[in-house]
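We append the chain.
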Amino acid sequence: PHAPQAQPSLCTNYLIRQQVGQFLYLIDRARNEIVVFNSNSMAVIERIEVPDPTTLAMSPNLDFLAVSNQSVGLVTFIDINPASSTFHSRVKTTVVGSGPRGIAWEPGNEDILVCNEQDSTLSIISAFSLEVRKTVSSQLHQPFDVVITPRQLGFGFQRGVYFGYILNRNGRLAMYESGPNAVNGWGFDDVIGTAPQTFKNPKTLQPDLINFNSAVWIVHEGPIDPATEVAGEVGIPAVSNLRIESGIIGQLPLNFQSLLIPQFRDLSLAVNVSLGPDVLSGVPVDLAFDNQRNYGGLVNFATTFSAGVALPINGKSLVRVVGGTPANTCEPKYMFVAVPNPTFGSEGVVDVVDIGGGFNRVDVSAFQPGVQSIAVKEAATLMDYFRQ
């Protein structure tokens, strides 16, 4: 790393010395608690009572934690700002749909998207008020997970909107486009379509941290042939990268026809890569990325649609402005894939895949024959700093 400096701006990019992490938040669903650890010593600091905590999302400014409460149809907001008088207290409870599960906080701090699996709806909570501002249901069938890519202002297809990717239990992926959808608006603020591919037995998904055009990694079964878009058989391990392949550059103003039928807003989705059993040790259930190369020491990316003041350092936004130009915050080389029941070998492994070149599995041990993965018994959940 760069030698210590008084200001992050004096450090060389990618060499900013920073201590990331102090509080670690864990869901203890059996005890209806969010357990707070010191991430350096792993000592328990606090236990916060929450009804049926299921999934959580952290605000990009690191000031709130949103927890979906599946059995009671709520989202609980917890203050996680150490400088606040209500630190580690519940500050808001928001009523959403039935059976909320997957939840994601928009990386520009605009909205929180909540998948209501039981009534097949999506609750959109404003980051300004922490209240539901809209509920959508089009093309949703038991949605259970969601991720969001940043509002495209000065990068990607420059649409001036953010995109949400909603994973349905039937393996279909719905795409949400944000607003503004008022007079002279250019965003639909609703689901605009469903990807043509079917991701069989879907497990989870995460945003692609590298692709600025908007893309996601999806954990499922049945690898997809990128040439034909045909999915393989159930039971065959798969991790696929779905991206916006093509589209009109720039904002698309709303007109009478587009208000009635979104028609996918002239975007085309395609599977770029679909990893299968030649790379994966078995059926995967989760994934994460390395965060070694990052611009986390720079100020969070914010827009006129963002709530609050952008965090000056260590924010969870997926975009940073570097030298006046937007850049992806993190440039991972490796993807980590949890496989609790590998086809051969140990009781559980984490595969390490080189996504920086070749998409091959990396051998983690030079002292054993073959390509070795990280042995982790019953590996089921992975985490990285910029995960949603």
Notes: The first helix runs from residue 256 to 260.
